[in-house]
Amino acid sequence: AETGYVRVMIGGRNFNHSKFNRIMQAKRQPGSSFKPIVYTTALVNGYTPATIIEDEPTYFMQNDTLFWHPSNYSKKNFGFTRMRDGLKKSRNIYATKMLYDVGPRKVVEFAKRFGISTRIYPYYTIAVGSIEVYPYEMISAYTTFANGGSRVKPIYIRKVEDADGTILEENFPEKIRVVNEQVAYLMANLMQSVIDEGTGQGVRW
């Protein structure tokens, strides 16, 4: 996470069968793994881990027509919820209402800062990761939280030498500032709650 050096990359199960590298070439919906980008945007725009939003039935209307009715995975609502609990339990209603408040365009801007190159439209559904991204870009985006607010570009080839040892190409770690250290610390702490008490507890096994 500090250098960007890629030690292992598994893009498929059999290179002889298919040379399509899913890490680099396949677009995938990130789902809830996109939420930390949404939450980071909120922290930069005035939210705190203690900010409360009411988890309640939510409807988005346009021209008197329902065009989206987000729901939590459990299909239940949990009332007044702090940000930490919203992320810890991956509550879709919290993320959606927070994105509505902050503004989807700001989340799109932050996604670009996190290194997401695919085109993202400012729809409310991006709160639950409905857009498609390249896996390697999401991995790079997550280095932001481990590096005090700076993401590192992936390095697949450290250097290339000819037969005489002359270096033809060499790549060095490159860090790009995304957010300040305070926001990065808060997000890393919030994400730790996901592993300690939330939907990611299974990782501990």
Describe the structure.
This protein is an alpha+beta fold and about 200 residues long. Helices cover about 35% and strands about 15% of the residues. It has helices at about 20-25, 35-45, 85-90, 90-100, 105-115, 135-145, 180-195, and strands at about 50-55, 60, 65-70, 80, 150, 160, 165-170, 175. The strands form 4 sheets. It has a two-stranded antiparallel ribbon with strand order 1-4. Strands 2-3 form a two-stranded antiparallel ribbon. It is globular, with a radius of gyration of 19 Å. The two termini are about 20 Å apart.
Structure characteristics:
205 residues, alpha+beta, two-stranded antiparallel ribbon, globular
Secondary structure elements and their pairing?
Blueprint: H1 22-25, H2 35-44, E1 52-55, E2 60-62, E3 65-68, E4 79-82, H3 83-88, H4 92-102, H5 104-113, H6 135-146, E5 150-152, E6 159-161, E7 167-170, E8 175-177, H7 181-197
Antiparallel strand pairs: 1-4, 2-3, 5-8, 6-7
Helix pairs in contact: 2-4, 2-5, 2-7
Structural class: alpha+beta
Task: Describe the main β-sheet briefly.
Answer: 2 strands, antiparallel
Low-pLDDT segments: none
Q: What is the overall number of helices?
A: 7
Strand neighbour order, sheet with most strands:
1-4
**Termini, distance in Å?**
22 Å
- Morphology call: globular
What order do the helices and strands follow? HHEEEEHHHHEEEEH
User: Roughly how many Å is the radius of gyration?
Assistant: 19 Å
Q: Give a count of the beta strands, DSSP E runs of length 2 or more.
A: 8
Q: Give the overall average pLDDT.
A: 95
The helix content is 25-40%
Q: What percent strand?
A: 5-15%
